[in-house]
Protein 1
Amino acid sequence: MPGAELAGKHLVLGMTGGIACYKIAELTRLLTKAGATVQVVMTDAATQFITPVTMQALSGRPVYTSQWDARIANNMPHIDLSREADAIVIAPASTDFLAKLAHGMADDLLTTLCIARDCPLLAVPAMNRQMWQNPATQRNVAQLRADGIELLGPDSGPQACGEVGDGRMIEPEAAYEAIVSFFTAKTLAKRRVLITAGPTFEALDPVRGITNRSSGKMGFALARAAQQAGAEVHLVAGPVGLDTPWGVYREDVQSAQQMYDAVMHELAIGAYDVFIGVAAVADWRVDHVSEHKIKKTAERQVPNFTFVENPDILAAVAKLPNAPYCVGFAAESGDLDVHGEEKRKRKNVPLLIGNLGPLTFGLDDNEVVLFEEAGATKLPRAGKHTLARTLVAEIAKRLPGRNPPA
Ligand code: C5P
């Protein structure tokens, strides 16, 4: 879990009737763990699928189900509940509820609360594929989008009714990511960002190879933060055991040469605004990868390898005629101040981010220094997701050409 990234946010979570209600238990847990306060409001139909008791336990707040609820002093829950909200999230949003919303109906607490809101509304549709495809639903969806309501999903795939198609609710993790994204300033809107992450694996023979301890966490966190800041992100990943961040296009590679080829291919077929080299790329590979597993023999107990240099991806990208804004990373075991600035100059990049202190590989937090022409700036130690958001904002500020929106 990427830290308290929704701290201070107050959400009204409106649940309508559908089997996907079970997914909202998990979504509530993700939202509250991220620091959001979640006020659950359920329609009558929703209470047929999951009880208000469960939702109260998970959200830590009493659940509202009726517009005649006397717990609100002025007896106006439809006004009071949404007044402090930063957003209303309807999840799952049923066919019926979308229709009611599109037509401005207000015949129960949740519909009345939605029409009386003065905050953004997000809806997470969940329904059978034929209900979704029905022209009436599609008309309602188009109307809701025109009214500024953001629809998250639906997904495609197997459905509770046994059919397969569009309409199933996106997974709770994806809904969570979309909600975080909704609250993130779009400092990289319309920008294209290419990122390398993780280690590389340099084969010695079909079963052995040389790699390093990079976990890919920092690069993946940056890909996620850039995507949430509105960028289109292409992530070239070495061998790591991490899930692809939501909305990010991922390409897996093994060796430094494959990573170089993937990066150069991307830059040849499309324009990128930013390149961030986070990968811990192997500096060397063996000049000849054995076709068969290298065996111990009576004459040769220990094999000898000759190494050749791998291409320096970052330096090569920075040299391109139309080079994107290039950002490098450096993991040093000492003298970062000297090596960081020296490396930035040698690779000819405007910004190099140096990892301070003990090697950060595999850890969940990090402490970095920004090296650039103007000097060095240290950032406070933080979780990699928090740091990634700060770094994305710093990179956005430095991009030439277009001023990012405030
Ligand atoms: O030279 P060093 O490996 O310390 O430099 C680190 C920076 O250079 C990182 O941004 C890394 O992704 C990039 N790099 C690269 N290709 C290499 C070696 C490093 O892109 N062959």
Note: Residues 196, 256, 277-279, 281, 283, 310, 312-314, 328-330, 343 surround cytidine-5'-monophosphate (CB under 6 Å).
Protein 2
Amino acid sequence: MKIKSWAEPYKIKMVELLKMTSPEERKAAIGKAGYNTFLLKSEDVYIDLLTDSGTSAMSDRQWAGMMFGDEAYAGSRNYYKLEEAVQSIYGYKYLVPTHQGRGAEHLLSQVMIKKGDIIPGNMYFTTTRLHQELAGGTFRDVIIDEAHDPDCEFPFKGNVDLNKLEDLVREFGAERIPYVSIATTVNMAGGQPVSMENLKALRAFTNKHGIKIIHDMTRVAENAWMIKQLEKGYKNKTTAEIVREICDLTDGATMSAKKDALVNIGGFLALNDYDVFEEARNLVVVYEGLHTYGGLAGRDMEAMAIGIRESVSDDHIHARVGQVHYLGNLLKKAGIPIVKPVGTHGVFIDAKAFLPHLSQDEFPAQSLAAELYLASGIRTMERGVVSAGRNKKTGAHNYPKLELVRLTIPRRVYTQAHMDVVTETVVELHKQREQITGLEMVYEPRYLRFFQARFKKKE
Ligand code: F0G
């Protein structure tokens, strides 16, 4: 007999109690937060789907590992254990630990980007692009057009369009393109994977032009799992083997270990090129900490080393992506407009289709995120015009095609029953969608405005 149902490969040893709030309490809380879910107090949140970043539940082994923290300023044994995990699981040669992903992006951008450089990428990520710009570079999107269409069911919407990349090489010359920035999976596209076939073609193209590939490997295990499910020739490979094959096609990586690697804090820059590594190792001392801790406690590095190994287990990743797909399929069946196919770290609601009566200037995704909180205390995040920021030259809003609300699922934290409550909330709100009004921005910070912007209801 073969059982087709799956369940989590763990049982629950400790629970964190949640506060239930009344509609009046939620109304007061979101008003105080300026209709920005980032500004809510987490104790006022019931089911927190703001992000999958740093919100995972660590295993008993990781917690036990915390007790083995070697908090020496230099040469902590946990650093060497982390280095060994990065080398043996991912295959990169050199490691620079950082406090989280953006610390690695900062170092990489400062070392590899010169003023006037062009950095092609498979869609932007907020912090990644900002660090490229702060280093004097310009980001250019080379993702396939399908990624910008929420209804397109193409399974590898994270792929690079090599024609777009070739056009950039022709326009600017390969010498102005230090590297192509490749994210596995693509967060802003809705958690969409890249295919191995596309990565191999990209490797061949970049080799021909002497351009490097830097891998944003934040969710690489999830990407590998999708390759295993969908790409010809990978069914019988393990997630760990596929992860390794992806990494081997690239020259280095930035990692936010707060996602895939199942820790609450941590990240790193990993490189194969000794010269780039040497520069970055030099710079980490200025911004993060000594090169054997990079802003982390020894115990954090220990938890990360253990988390990296757990993250590439087939049983783990099956349940992780399985839960996200469970929620996505329920919403899809109920006729809710979501990005298709369902991504690996969250379900993304198409706010333009959910609220067709609002223009993008009225911040539909921001407004929908606030309404979801009001309805049942679930916290989600805007990924649309607010997140896209302003054009560096003209100062006008960037108007992304995708105006999304992200329901991001933390790893090993919520149950299927939580997913059912989320589904019911979205479905009930969809029935009342015509009553939802837009927002007006009343405070706008200069950098990464979505984190701290404030809004009021439009009259
Ligand atoms: N790259 C990707 C693809 C990310 O999703 C993130 C973070 C980073 C880099 C930056 O890493 O937060 O450790 O500095 N994403 C979080 C999110 C914030 O909610 O999607 P970090």
Note: Residues 23-52+314-457 form a domain with the Aspartate Aminotransferase, domain 1 fold (CATH 3.90.1150.10).
